């Protein structure tokens, strides 16, 4: 199987889908002439021209609205927001229009549209450029929210998103773009709502999505050398959420730690913990713990930033606390 | 400097088939359109008036819930703008769009059923007054967030352009919506990308309790077009034919030149902002003055003066309109509610296919 | 003690605080000439004039930004958003500026500002006008989010909010405005981060905030007639969250049900459940259950709406499921 | 129609104390200001240039993290606008504001320390390049969301008006920010409420890789003022004195007439959007053409022509600027990092008091 980066996998997928269906088009800031702020759309303007790779002004609300309108008439827009931090300017369009229109118009309209955007922290981008708000969108019926962690899933899930008929928030991550992995040559589509057991283990379940998955795998590797077999569940999709896989894993391991790149209080991990305690209550031997960002706006200073972002040590500490509990 | 166009931009209206009947009218507006169309417009205005009054009545009887925002007083703006559309054009609007749906041809019974929250409503009872929808007539919805549908209108224009069609989009909104960010972003991309969109502002003088001057640095709304090098035009929104003519011209510019326009229709809502509004932020005198220019009366008088209508016919048209409105209420009253078991339907399209 | 409505309590508080400190001023749509969409600011324009009761255009982003700028220069703006549904147009200002500025500018600035807005569903306002997104704001460090449920708390907590030096989202509810209750004549301030045990009980804890509190009390009353003693914890403040009171209650009752008016998945109740299982794990005899909105955009139709909104029956059912579990 | 003012609006500049020295200069711009101010402005421009070049160097050495956006090429726009402010006025800007802080008087060492993420930085190392802050000099911050600080600027104006002060607010932003909703909402309320705010757009031709024409229906940014009945003016942003003069006039209008203005400074950034930008979206020729109008060279030549400066002095000024920049790097290098134990500090003000 060919090896490629997460970025290449996305780029390949966009190219493939645009070749396959001329209703698919891209819009976003600097995706064309500039080749994409993070080069995900590199070369696509050259191949498909400005009609299908539409550079937009800095006007996030208009961008989202344009995608909605275009989707209503049967096109399949794929929006790029440069980073998730700017999505708040478009969240009204996404939450109040895209997510609700099908329902509030009695099923008379479909909105096949994808919003791609990288989340994540690190790189000293400071408070306004280091966020992960995917949990807010995952709270909204009518939205689908996915967050692949590998190049193969990135390609396969972006295909599912583009060919689907609903608005999808497709979460990328600044720190995953250069991650490498095998990507099958043949076409693959991963249905939404299926978590992936990225590593099997029997002692504790590490739950992660997006960039936290490689961290979880790294932690699992370290734990293994200490004789602890951690299972890693890569959620892949937040809405729909694959509660079954989660619960099945914890029924086996009886313990869980959630890794998250957002703030834990009222964050993504809260739902994971709530789900596990609700559906695997009788199996749990320890409370589900959460490891996420420090509850501060992200500081710029390297030393402070490092202190704020979850790392292997903090996850391992949480795992140890979990394991201390007797059955 | 802004390239505003005068109200007298050249008109390429739809083919007139029976122009003969009124070619000698002294009223240039009336002379422009065939009799059957003029009568149809009057009938639509009456239908809207009576539909709205009946809806108001049902609201006070608590047969209708939520908020309802009526078009009473704005019938000329509503009918004039919608009449300018081709059947293939798209219409999109705010929460104040009962009239637009009716003018576009949506069955009054389906509109009233929606207000009653019935399964037979335009949105299967899921949307209510603020969220009417009629795909068949290309009325692509009523929206509740002020300004929130303007970016969508741009997207509709984008799709038409992408697909190479000659449809146009009409986006209607209130003057209060012109102060919000979405207005700016949408008009900018429409002009920048040459999208076939006509922006129709129904300036009914108030945004809830706020007069135009309370909210907008520029009170002649059409002048805001200058910031996009877009034609901007103000028209008497109580004159159904002036509205139609301006919108026809703007639609043609959109269609042929890919030049969007901002058309401001100066009008008035007789009633409160919504049925819930009983506040006093305007004087009785003001309301009376506007009512004296009632768009329906005025249009009726013009048609009678042009000898295209007599008092009896006028009465009949009004009676028929009211009968339709009454029939709509009757239909809605007896239509079944949605099945609570269907609560989860229509959230996702993909799930239904799978 | 005088009895007044929640609306009157807010109105009284605004009047008192404006009289007390001339740096306090109000801004929002239709708060002056129109007396407030829900009449909370009734009469204030007359008393304080247009400088201190500033009617604004429909421009939520500008409104929020104006409050931020004014707060930077030492004023104490109190914003009204007509309903929480429109706050998404201002969320960038609130989350990216208000909540982060003090931190990202190294503590050099204070933002004493309050955003008042009613959330809630019911009344057939349909999908775009029936929401409760307070959980998203409660996820953000730098924000304070409070949601009083009684007239007395409304007055006392709004005072705390206005006199405090941080941005506060002050959550009201359409269905609480007419709720009546005793309000002490003397001045009272309720510090944030203190939940209130609204009713004592030993069998199960009902956790609620805002409008769900009266529902919880109503349920507790019904349960009492069946011999079940429910304790009701009114959170009052979501950020800071009073984990102690929550945990203390569950340590006593060993069971909990969360009532929420938002969508449960990734909603407010998830944090409550996650907190309880984490900190009261050894006491819990049953999983924490959540009762919230049906996971659909709110339908208009009365029958569908009723099916979507949590009611006493659904809460009682959840309580019964919880009680079925043996110790 | 828009009421744009010409660049020659009457000027009420600050009291000139030593006008004598250059009153006979043929250069009307130069003649307008006393020598010490002119020299100070040149020194500031040089300081910015050298500070930025050194910052770039430190960035490539990975001593500075995040994004950094330089003002190189834009020194005339930066210094000209900031020089127009009174000490009591407020300044607020985007993420591209190293130069603004320096021009306002912030210690270069504190600015560089901020870029290094040190506790001695303007924002105690919490903000970094995009979020400089200097309360003492009334520079109320750099902000990272395009357009996001414009509403705040309106709020500062509102507070001044509320408190009855005679300060003014200058809000600087790029031309790319004029297409976003916040621009529209902010300018509307500023004019509507008569807020003392001057909106200074640094039109440096590009928003990342987008030329003005790619993003804006109206490419002469100053013309967007027409939608708010606000004076709009375009000025040569490479001419520090023209910028200063226009801003002074606008500030006076803001202060005395409570009339906000939009001042567009046409300028150019020599470097990439941020240090990370190596893309090719503009030609070498274009960059070269702009560099030929280098604002520092040009200003130096004018001062020399007016006999207010000689080559040696010019060299000295440049050398001193570079020394300051170097000293700033040196200071920043040796300044201590924040204590990780302080991670949770500064989230809430109330908590600290309690
Ligand atoms: C973003 C937003 N803010 C506030 C409201 C509440 N609201 C509903 S209609 C309205 C007034 C709108 O006035 P205008 O645009 O003139 O339209 P009209 O109602 O007069 O037709 C307001 C403030 C809303 N729906 N959306
Ligand atoms: C709302 C938002 N969208 C996108 C970005 C990413 N971004 C940062 S700077 C920039 C270009 C801004 O151009 P302009 O306003 O002309 O200012 P300049 O950088 O040229 O000074 C973009 C798109 C952002 N920071 N905020
Ligand atoms: Mg109006
Ligand atoms: Mg620029």
Would you write up a description of this structure?
The complex is a heterotetramer, with two copies of chain A (about 325 residues) and two copies of chain B (about 350 residues). With about 325 residues, chain A is an alpha/beta fold. Chain A contains eleven helices and 14 strands. Chain A has helices at about 5-20, 45-50, 60-70, 90-105, 135-140, 150-165, 210-225, 245-255, 270-280, 300-310, 310-325, and strands at about 5, 25-30, 55, 75-80, 115-120, 145, 170-175, 180, 195-200, 205-210, 230-235, 235-240, 255-260, 290. The model of chain A has no long low-confidence stretch (mean pLDDT about 95). In chain A, helix 3 packs parallel to helix 4 (about 90-105) and helix 7 (about 210-225) packs across helix 11 (about 310-325). In chain A, the strands form three sheets. Chain A has a seven-stranded mixed beta sheet, sandwiched between helices. In chain A, helix 2 (about 45-50) links the parallel strand 2 (about 25-30) and strand 3. Helix content of chain A is about 40%, strand content about 20%. By secondary structure, chain B is α/β, with parallel strands linked by helices. Chain B has helices at about 30, 35-60, 75-85, 100-105, 110-115, 150-165, 180-190, 210-215, 240-255, 285-290, 295-305, 310-335, 350-354, and strands at about 90-95, 140, 170-175, 195-205, 205, 210, 230-235, 260-265. In chain B, the strands form two sheets. In chain B, strands 2-1-3-4-8-7 form a six-stranded parallel beta sheet. In chain B, helix 9 links the parallel strand 7 and strand 8 (about 260-265). In chain B, helix 2 packs across helix 3 (about 75-85), helix 2 crosses helix 12 (about 310-335) and helix 3 runs parallel beside helix 4. The radius of gyration of chain B is 20 Å and the shape is globular. The model of chain B is unreliable at about 1-20 (pLDDT under 50). Chains in contact: A-B, A-C, A-D, B-C, B-D, C-D. The interface between A and D is large, with 36 and 39 residues. The structure holds thiamine diphosphate (2 copies) and magnesium ion (2 copies). One magnesium ion (MG) binds near residues 176, 204 and 207 of chain D.
């Amino acid at each position: 199987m060919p090896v490629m980066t997460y970025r290449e996998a996305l780029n390949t997928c966009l190219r493939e889908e645009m070749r396959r269906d001329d209703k698919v088009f891209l819009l976003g800031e600097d995706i064309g002439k500039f080749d994409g702020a993070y080069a995900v759309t590199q070369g696509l303007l050259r191949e498909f021209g400005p009609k299908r790779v539409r550079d937009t002004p800095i006007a996030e609300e208009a961008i989202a609205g344009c995608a909605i309108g275009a989707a209503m008439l049967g096109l399949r827009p794929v929006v790029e927001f440069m980073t998730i931090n700017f999505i708040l300017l478009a969240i009204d369009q996404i939450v109040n229009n895209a997510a609700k229109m099908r329902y509030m118009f009695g099923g008379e309209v479909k909105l096949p549209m994808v919003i791609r955007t990288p989340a994540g922290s690190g790189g000293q981008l400071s408070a306004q450029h280091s966020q992960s708000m995917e949990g807010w969108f995952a709270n909204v019926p009518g939205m689908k929210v996915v967050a692949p962690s590998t190049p193969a899933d990135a390609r396969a899930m972006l295909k599912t998103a583009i060919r689907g008929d609903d608005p999808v928030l497709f979460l990328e991550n600044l720190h995953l773009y250069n991650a490498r992995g095998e990507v099958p040559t043949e076409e693959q589509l991963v249905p939404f709502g299926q978590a992936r057991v990225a590593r099997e283990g029997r002692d504790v379940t590490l739950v992660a999505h997006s960039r936290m998955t490689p961290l979880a795998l790294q932690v699992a590797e370290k734990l293994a050398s200490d004789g602890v077999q951690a299972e890693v569940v890569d959620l892949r999709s937040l809405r729909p959420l694959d509660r079954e896989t989660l619960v099945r894993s914890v029924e086996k391991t009886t313990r869980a730690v959630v890794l998250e790149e957002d703030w834990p209080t009222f964050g993504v991990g809260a739902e994971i913990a709530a789900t596990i305690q609700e559906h695997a209550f009788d199996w749990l031997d320890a409370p589900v713990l959460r490891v996420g960002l420090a509850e501060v706006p992200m500081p710029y200073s390297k030393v402070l930033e490092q202190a704020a972002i979850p790392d292997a040590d903090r996850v391992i500490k949480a795992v140890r606390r979990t394991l201390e509990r007797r059955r | 400097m802004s390239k505003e166009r005068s109200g007298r931009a050249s008109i390429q209206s739809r083919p007139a088939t029976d122009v003969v009947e009124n070619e000698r009218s002294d009223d240039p507006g009336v002379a422009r359109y065939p009799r059957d169309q003029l009568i149809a417009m009057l009938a639509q205005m009456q239908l809207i008036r009576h539909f709205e009054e009946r809806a108001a009545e049902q609201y006070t009887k608590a047969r209708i819930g939520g908020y309802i925002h009526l078009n009473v007083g704005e019938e000329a703006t509503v009918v004039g703008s919608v009449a300018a559309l081709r059947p293939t054009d798209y219409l999109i609007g705010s929460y104040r769009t009962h009239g637009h749906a009716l003018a576009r041809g949506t069955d009054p019974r389906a509109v009233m059923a929606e207000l009653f929250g019935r399964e037979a409503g335009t949105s299967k009872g899921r949307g209510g007054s603020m969220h009417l929808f009629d795909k068949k007539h290309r009325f692509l919805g009523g929206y509740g967030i002020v300004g929130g549908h303007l970016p969508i209108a741009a997207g509709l224009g984008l799709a038409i352009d992408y697909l190479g069609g000659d449809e146009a989009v009409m986006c209607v909104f209130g003057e209060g919506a012109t102060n919000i960010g979405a207005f700016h972003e949408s008009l900018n991309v429409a002009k920048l990308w040459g999208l076939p969109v006509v922006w129709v502002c129904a300036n009914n003088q108030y945004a809830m309790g706020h007069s135009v001057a309370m909210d907008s640095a520029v009170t002649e709304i059409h002048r805001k077009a200058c910031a996009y090098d877009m034609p901007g035009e103000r028209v008497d929104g109580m004159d159904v034919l002036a509205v139609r003519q301006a919108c026809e011209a703007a639609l043609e510019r959109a269609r042929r030149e890919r030049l969007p326009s901002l058309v401001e229709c100066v009008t008035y809502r007789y009633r409160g902002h919504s049925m819930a509004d009983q506040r006093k932020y305007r004087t009785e005198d003001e309301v009376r003055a506007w009512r004296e220019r009632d768009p329906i009366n005025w249009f009726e008088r013009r048609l009678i003066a042009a000898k295209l209508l007599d008092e009896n016919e006028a009465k009949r048209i009004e009676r028929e309109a009211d009968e339709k409105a009454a029939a709509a209420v009757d239909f809605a009253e007896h239509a079944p509610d949605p099945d609570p078991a269907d609560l989860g339907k229509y959230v996702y399209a993909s799930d239904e296919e799978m």
